[in-house]
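Page 47, continued from p. 46.
Same chain as before, 171 aa.
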Amino acid sequence: MNTYAIGIAAGIIVLIVAFFAPAFTGLSVGVDTFDVNFESGPLDSVPAEFNTVGTAEGGFIETDAFITSGGKPVLFFFGTMGDSDCSWEKKPFLEVAKEFGDSVSVHFYEHNIATPTADDTEVLTNLKVGGNVPVVMIAGRYYRIGSGERYGEEGEKQILRGLIEDVLNQV
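Result:
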């Protein structure tokens, strides 16, 4: 491959990244049309393991863990760009997270766009999901691997609201 072709290929890659990758710039990040305050503050504690105690609405698993940051329940989203389940789940997750404003801490990660903090990486490792995405976790108390697409967007939002309200009542 000659130098000219390499330059053109590099230019195309830069354009693709600039066009398709949303900007993550610290704590306040706009994703699509959502204005959600993303926080990457330290977690108050990181569970060494998540013991299942039952199931919850929407295919969520209930655990004995409870994760906060600055005393606020943490909403986690671990996903990857280009995955259809992650793309679907992102919208209801962000819309509902926005509704709860400053009463929750939102830790949102899409692979190749934002790097999880050491605490958040430890949470995902201790959960032992084996690289499956998306992972939606409500304060460590509830988590689900996969999207809630089967419940429809409004159904998924209602499920997320209910679980978030439940953990807010436990703070």
